[in-house]
């Protein structure tokens, strides 16, 4: 079990705004990807967002942003 699981972090984000992550993490073709990991039954489930995908977050249910809007602020 990973450290985040051990201490029960409910949600964490990985923002790969350049699309440099490995294919097993962000898929192919490689594109800027926001990965949100949610702890479900002591195991992380990942949901990925790209481009105009509207971000869905249990930690921030009122959030009204797309992945691209996040990427635009990091580059």
Explain this structure.
- The chain has one domain.
- Helix content is 21%, strand content 28%.
- It is built from 3 helices and 3 strands, in the order H-E-H-E-E-H.
- It has a 3-stranded antiparallel sheet.
- The longest helix is centred in the C-terminal third of the chain and has 8 residues.
- The protein starts with a helix and ends with a helix.
Q: Which oligomerization state do the chains in this entry correspond to?
A: single chain
Total number of distinct structural domains: 1
Low-confidence stretches: none
Task: Give the spatial strand order of the biggest sheet.
Answer: 1-2-3
Helical proportion, percent range? 10-25%
Number of strands: 3
> What is the gyration radius calculated from CA atoms?
13 Å
Largest sheet: 3 strands, antiparallel
Task: Offer a few descriptive terms.
3 strands, three-stranded antiparallel β-sheet, alpha+beta
Write the layout of secondary structure elements.
Layout: H1 3-6, E1 11-16, H2 23-26, E2 33-40, E3 43-49, H3 67-74
Antiparallel strand pairs: 1-2, 2-3
TL;DR of this structure?
The chain has 75 residues and is an alpha+beta fold. It has helices spanning 3-6, 23-26, 67-74, and strands at residues 11-16, 33-40, 43-49. It is globular and about 30 Å long.
């Amino acid at each position: 079990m990973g450290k985040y699981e051990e201490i029960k972090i409910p949600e964490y984000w990985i923002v790969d705004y350049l699309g440099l992550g490995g294919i097993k993490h962000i898929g192919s073709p490689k594109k800027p990807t926001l990965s949100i990991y949610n702890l479900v039954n002591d195991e992380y489930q990942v949901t990925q967002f790209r481009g105009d995908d509207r971000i869905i977050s249990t930690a921030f249910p009122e959030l009204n942003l797309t992945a691209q809007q996040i990427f635009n602020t990091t580059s």
